[in-house]
């Protein structure tokens, strides 16, 4: 016996919600990867300033480069890789580029002289994030990382 019904069943409504919501989850994952890269770069910025000002017998007032990354005592998030470049002064400076296994986005930052940066990060101490090779960038998530 067929009856005339009005409205939708619960199953039909759930299917529509799932179909509409799936793309949002992908964007959330991408934003989480970028946030992890930004967080790691902020940790490195702090560690670099501590490293620079720490009294050492050899090379005082220098920044850590890739071969001294362990000296920064920074633990990177899962999936994040960072490349450091440092320029002994005067004037001294450093740059870093972060990538994540789960996205094609990159994040960059530099302080002082800008050694080895691909040129996407243009403001000292401001984290730039965006597609690799895209100079417009997506900006960061808070005021310490630019705007989006």
Would you kindly provide a written description of the structure presented here, covering whatever features stand out?
It is built from 1 helix and 4 strands; from the N terminus they run αββββ. It is an alpha+beta fold. The protein has one domain (10-131). A 4-stranded antiparallel beta sheet has the order 1-2-3-4, with helices on one face. The termini are far apart. The model is unreliable at 139-148 (pLDDT under 50).
Features:
single chain; 148 residues; alpha+beta; 4-stranded antiparallel beta sheet; 1 helix; 4 strands; elongated
Strand order of the largest sheet: 1-2-3-4
Number of helices: 1
- Helix percent reads 25-40%
Mean pLDDT value: 80
Structural class: alpha+beta
**Can you tell me the overall shape?**
elongated
Straight-line N-to-C gap: 58 Å
Domain count: the total is 1
**Secondary-structure element order, N to C:** HEEEE
Give the biggest beta sheet.
4 strands, antiparallel
Low-confidence stretches: 139-148
Rg, Å, rounded:
22 Å
Strand content: 15-25%
Report the strand count.
4
């Amino acid at each position: 016996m067929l009856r005339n019904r009005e409205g939708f069943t619960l199953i039909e409504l759930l299917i529509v919600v799932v179909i509409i919501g799936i793309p949002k989850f992908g964007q959330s994952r991408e934003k989480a990867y970028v946030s992890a890269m930004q967080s790691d770069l902020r940790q490195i910025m702090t560690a670099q300033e501590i490293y620079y000002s720490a009294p050492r017998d050899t090379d005082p007032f220098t920044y850590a480069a890739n071969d001294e990354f362990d000296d920064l005592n920074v633990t990177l998030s899962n999936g994040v890789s960072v490349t450091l470049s440092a320029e002994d002064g005067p004037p001294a400076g450093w740059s870093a580029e972060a990538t994540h296994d789960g996205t094609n986005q990159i994040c960059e930052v530099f302080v002082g002289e800008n050694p080895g940066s691909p040129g996407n990060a243009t403001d000292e101490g401001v984290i730039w994030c965006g597609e690799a090779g895209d100079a417009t960038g997506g900006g960061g998530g808070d005021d310490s990382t630019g705007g989006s």
